[in-house]
Amino acid sequence: MSIAAAPQAPVRSPDRAPETTQTRLTAVPAPLSAPMAPRLPFVVLVSMLLIGGVVGLLVFNTSMQQSAFQEQRLQEQATTLAAREQALDGELKKMEDPHKIAAEAKKLGMVVPQNAAMLQVPDAKVVGEAAPADRSATPPLHPKVAKPYSVLVAERKAAEAAAAKERAAEEAKKKRAQETTSQQQTEEQQRTETGEAR
Asked: Is there a domain that residue 173 lies in?
């Protein structure tokens, strides 16, 4: 506390001579310091904003990485499915090939009819005269045309993808079997150790 002197007016009595003035000491209050309470909410607010920003960035980064992995997986799946579609399209074109159909029909003993009769359903009338078919009316088959290169490439890619998938499935099956075996051995070892401890 600081002490300061406060001047007072001299007291004069009528029959006395003037005296020197006396000073009285009084207490002066201490200066007020800035309170800590108003700063605390500001510090808490800034801290919460920083923590929220860091957590938000981490969550955003994690979600972006997950979506990138999912996109890559879906892209690989789309590529595999596109190759499979091309292979199936090639097989379908192969089955729709007129030479293949004619060859299969010839193997089954089918021949082209010379005279065909048609049945008109509403009138229930037969138009034309039917004659039995013989092999002389069936034209010879032309030699088969080679497949286009793109179809061959698509079939090869589909076969490679299927083989890779089968290999991966076999490796996963072997790995699961090894893990199961090691887990069983570990459990048996633990049972043996607990049996010895008793």
From this structure: yes
